[in-house]
Specification:
This protein is of the alpha+beta class and 507 residues long. The protein is built from 7 helices and 28 strands.
């Protein structure tokens, strides 16, 4: 065999050996990655069933019972198994556990007091995280390449060989594919401190590590927004309630929420210190006054600051329309009254801050009236305040009888409609006024439509109820127990100023 042939054979052997080494290294790294996750990421919990719960051989109630675990038995959880793709219900999730010397599966709704022993990982590419361990489950966000990931448990979908991890983001849990996460401590070198004598700086790199000094790679912020309410179209004077949360895997330092006009100017710019992984938009609800905006186009926007950097989390455009007189009345009534769903115990005690401010503005002499009217907890004062504060009728008097006399004397503003005791006859902003046949009671209220449904905006002094939205109309649309029943509708727009409102003391 000549020297050339020998060299070729030797080269082939070396190549085979190198390929074998590379394959072994890759397999070893993959196995080590999984072993680390299996041994480090785990959880403990307690059985939560008064009669105990069966540990089963498979993730199914039809599988064999391995052992009956007593209530409050401590279990060690090694994996979370979803048995139905697309469902996150607790009854469709199982835990693989060991407990009382036995191993098996227990349904997740039968375990509580869960404590996770977590480990760190790092993504090797951009990676989605989802509501469950399947690419068909809802996507909730994504990690950038080289992002730190907090792993708390292995996870899988029943019948699938794919490996997933349950990961913690902020205070919530999601699922990410294990193939794209490298498990282990995430460390990097830190730049050395300046030398005090030479005023030079030693830069550390992957091959120049400062002895004994290491820090975790800065975590990439991962944001989640949930249940954020935002307007699309509002009528002038109509308020809007803010709700929803912004969450991050690291603490949010500050939030900036407000409304931007068509020229890019911030209105009601609220800056709030947060220092938490979750920020609730309801905390700035009172400061963002949608009801004070004039007709036009606006943007409702929210920014948060993490590590000193600003990030816009939402930006919604909406329109304020001038609206008809009835719509302006109805929107003002909603702005001043307690909203739908407020408990009676709340609106029996006090008025909303908006109502109190409006009452002081349009009826400055109300402190001299009798108790019910003085506080604003009477039907006539509420309706009168709505009419005046909206600018529709700055001269609306108070007391039911006086209002009754006032409305027909001003046909240029108020028109009596043909009401047949059918709700279809009514429109938003209609004033309804009547006397009861029994007991001689008298009442005035305003009809409003919210999301297509009819309600009454009213107050009721005998009951001590301040302005509220009443969804229980009862016999309102029947004539059997009413007399002198009448409905008046605003006839047209008015530009009269609220400031010119005259006071009608009455009572």
């Amino acid at each position: 065999m000549d020297i050339t042939t020998r060299l070729k054979l030797r080269s082939k052997k070396i190549a085979v050996i190198l390929i074998g080494v590379l394959l072994f290294t890759a397999v070893f790294a993959f196995v080590q990655n999984r072993v680390q996750a299996d041994t480090i990421a785990s959880a403990s919990g307690k059985v939560n069933a008064s009669g105990g719960a069966y540990l089963r051989s498979k993730a199914s109630t039809k599988s064999d019972a391995v052992k009956l675990l007593k209530n409050k038995t401590v279990v060690t959880i090694t994996e979370e198994v979803f048995v139905k793709e697309g469902s996150t219900k607790a009854t469709n999730r199982w835990y693989q556990v060991t407990a009382a010397g036995a191993s098996g599966y227990i349904r997740s709704d039968l375990v509580n007091s869960i404590s996770y022993k977590q480990t760190s990982g790092k993504t090797i590419d951009a990676l989605n995280y989802r509501t469950g361990p399947s690419a068909k489950m809802a996507k909730k966000g994504y990690f950038k390449n080289n992002s730190k990931v907090t792993i708390v448990l292995r996870a899988s979908l029943k019948g699938s060989s794919d490996e997933w991890y349950k990961v913690k983001i902020g205070k919530k849990f999601y699922f990410a594919c294990a193939d794209w996460i490298r498990v282990g401590a995430v460390k990097t070198a830190q730049t050395a401190a300046p030398d005090s004598t030479t005023n030079s700086v030693m830069a550390a790199s992957a091959t120049d590590v400062v002895p004994g000094v290491s820090i975790e790679t800065p975590t990439v912020p991962v944001f989640t927004t949930e249940d954020i309410t935002h307007p699309t179209t509002l009528i002038e004077g109509m308020g809007f309630g803010l709700a929803g949360t912004i969450s991050c895997n690291i603490p949010i330092e500050k939030a900036r929420v407000g409304i931007i006009d068509s020229k890019g100017k911030w209105l009601y710019d609220v800056n709030k210190e947060v220092d938490s992984e979750t920020f609730s938009l309801s905390s700035v609800d009172a400061a963002i006054k949608f009801g004070s905006l004039k007709a036009g186009t606006y943007t409702y926007r929210g920014d948060v600051y993490v590590n000193g950097q600003s990030s816009t989390q939402f930006s919604y455009k909406f329109v304020i329309k001038k609206g008809t007189g009835g719509e302006r009345l109805a929107s003002t009534a909603q702005q001043l009254a307690w909203p739908i769903g407020t408990s009676k115990s709340t609106y029996k005690k006090k008025a909303t801050p908006n109502y109190t401010a409006a009452l002081n503005s349009v009826y400055p002499e109300h402190n001299k009236w009798k108790k019910g009217a003085r506080t604003g907890a009477s039907c006539d004062v509420f309706v009168g305040t709505v009419c005046r504060y909206s600018g529709i009728d700055p001269n609306m008097p108070r007391t039911v009888g006086t209002i009754w006399e006032y409305l027909p004397k001003h046909p240029e503003k108020w028109v009596k409609i043909n009401y047949t005791y059918k709700e279809s006859d009514l429109r938003s902003g209609d004033i309804i006024i009547y006397y009861y046949k029994k007991g001689g009671g008298k009442h005035v209220c305003m009809y409003v439509k919210i999301n297509g449904k009819g309600y009454l905006a009213e107050a009721n002094y005998p009951s001590g109820y301040y302005g509220f939205i009443n969804g229980s109309k009862g016999k309102l649309f029947k004539s059997s127990d009413k007399k002198k029943f009448a409905v008046y509708r605003f006839a047209g727009e008015t530009k009269a100023s609220i400031a010119s409102a005259s006071d009608e003391p009455g009572e």
